[in-house]
Write a structure and sequence with these properties.
It is found in: Endoplasmic reticulum membrane; Endoplasmic reticulum-Golgi intermediate compartment membrane; Golgi apparatus, cis-Golgi network membrane; Membrane. Belongs to the EMP24/GP25L family. Keywords: Endoplasmic reticulum, Membrane, Signal, Transmembrane, Transmembrane helix. With about 220 residues, this protein is α+β, with helices and mostly antiparallel strands. The protein has two domains: about 25-120, Jelly Rolls, CATH 2.60.120; about 150-220. Helices cover about 35% and strands about 30% of the residues. The protein contains three helices and nine strands. It has helices at about 125-135, 140-145, 145-215, and strands spanning about 20, 25-35, 40-45, 50-60, 65-70, 75-85, 85-90, 95-105, 110-120. The strands form two sheets. It has a five-stranded mixed β-sheet with strand order 1-3-8-5-6, with no helix packed on it. Strand 5 (about 65-70) and strand 6 form a beta hairpin. The model is unreliable at about 1-25 (pLDDT under 50).
Length: about 220
């Protein structure tokens, strides 16, 4: 697979050969074009006891299908989807780089436009935020309020906003795929309409010629 430098990733360990990189992020999405007969792989570094959720959709291309592989840091196949247009998968992770690949080698003509989104949970940032908040939890009894409750409310709002952004991103992907299907159908209808029009013109010309030939006087005058 071809190396795709997406966002860049700085780590002590080198990434696997032929894989693209993501910077650690709680939510990342990407759209790319996969040529016919090609396979592209990406990797995502994960921590132990975290979770990795990945959703993909084929937005454009004949058949709207793709092969999908998800491999663990040990090289074990966790998920394998064959000739599917979309999929959602969540796995509990361990320390290491998880690799996921999109395979279009079964297609010899059509390229595919693929959208995918990564959602990472329990990556450690929230725990650090809570530790930062604990430094300010002093004298709450005098103020008759608890900063832990405020933190919980803020985290709840943050989670809901993140979910809303994720849903909006997925809706945009669905809209893009539906638009591509409609445009493909529009081009197909126009093409076959022109073919039918051409056939009608040819048939009409042949009918006129045949009718004209029936009324022609083919007798030869004698001299």
């Amino acid at each position: 697979p071809r190396l795709l430098p997406l966002f860049g990733y700085f780590a002590l360990l080198l990434p696997p050969l032929g894989a693209a990189a993501f910077s650690p992020s709680l939510d990342s999405d990407f759209t790319f074009t996969l040529p016919a007969g090609r396979k592209e792989c990406f990797y995502q570094p994960m921590r132990k006891e975290a979770s990795l959720e990945l959703e993909y959709q084929v937005l454009d291309g004949a058949g709207l299908d793709i092969d999908f592989h998800l491999l663990s840091p040990k090289g074990e196949t966790l998920v394998f989807d064959e000739r599917k247009s979309d999929g959602v998968h969540m796995v509990e992770t361990e320390d290491g780089d998880y690799m996921f690949c999109f395979d279009n080698t079964f297609s010899t003509i059509s390229e595919k436009v693929i959208f995918f989104e990564l959602v990472l949970d329990n990556m450690g940032e929230d725990g650090q935020d809570q530790e930062d908040w604990k430094k300010y939890v002093t004298g709450t009894d005098l103020l008759d309020m608890k900063l832990e409750d405020i933190l919980e409310s803020i985290n709840s709002v943050k989670a809901r906003l993140s979910k809303s952004v994720q849903i909006q991103t997925l809706l945009r992907a669905f809209e893009a795929r539906d638009r591509n299907i409609q445009e493909s159908n529009f081009d197909r209808v126009n093409f076959w309409s022109m073919v039918n029009l051409g056939v009608m013109v040819v048939v009409s010309a042949v009918q006129v010629y045949m009718l004209k030939s029936l009324f022609e006087d083919k007798r030869k005058s004698r001299t």
